[in-house]
Each structure stands twice: as structure tokens, then as C-alpha cells.
Amino acid sequence: GERVVEVSCSTEPGVGMVARGNEVRCGTCPPGRASPAGSPTCEQCANYSYQPNPGAAACLPVPANADPVEGEFGAVGIWVHSGYALLDGELHPCQREEFCLEGGQCLEGNTGALCGE
Q: C-alpha angle 58/59/60, rounded to 5°?
């Protein structure tokens, strides 16, 4: 019959089971996954959430005017729509929409937090 391998993981936040192919191991959750306190599993960031850092207890919501960027294990970042810029972790409309290109880049010759300099 089939052998079921029992793997018990810590229920500390940011640590849990991660399946890689046929192998299941315990460890720090990779970017794109998170494990809240009390959970033995690294859950994939879903429903428009992401996590750029390893060992996270929770995924972050993807803000409006951005899309999640997938990594090996789940969404690890965001792609900012044109006309918006990321400032202190939040998206803001740019001072002039045409100054902000998609992906959070400023139009050449423009700098500053909202590409207005």
C-alpha cells in the first residue's frame, strides 16, 4: 500500500510544512507563503495577496491599481499600474498620470516619490 509520511511541524508563526515535488519538509516559509501562529503549514498567498519575505506569519493584501507577481511558491510582489506610485507601502496617484509608468517606474527625467520632481 501507500506509505503516508507524517511530518509534524512547529506551530510557530512563519514556519511550516513546504512541499517541493515529492518531498515535504518543515522550515521557514518561503516568499509567497505564510504560516500564522498555530498553523503547521505554509499556506500559499491567495485572493490577491502576496509576501516578499521568508518566514512570514501573514500575506499582505495587493492594493488596488496593482496586480500580484508570482514567484516559485506564490505571489511575492506587486506590479504597479501606470499612473500610480508606491509610497510607504501604499499606492498613490502620481502628480501627473503620464509621469508614472507601469511597474512603479518614473518617466525618464522625472524623479521623486510620485515622479513629480
A: 120
Q: For 51-109, how does the pLDDT look when each residue is reduced to its tens digit (9 = 90+)?
A: 999 999 999 999 999 999 999 999 999 999 999 988 877 888 988 889 989 988 889 98
pTM: 0.79
Q: Which amino acid is at 88?
A: D
In this prediction, residue 3 carries a pLDDT of 56
Cβ-contact 62, 55 below 8 angstroms: no
Whether 32 contacts 51, CB under 8 Å: yes
CB distance 16 to 35 below 8 Å:
yes
Residue 40 φ/ψ, nearest 5 degrees: -90, 5
DSSP label at 90? Answer: E
**Residue whose C-alpha is closest to residue 17's, from 96, 25, 34, 1:** 25
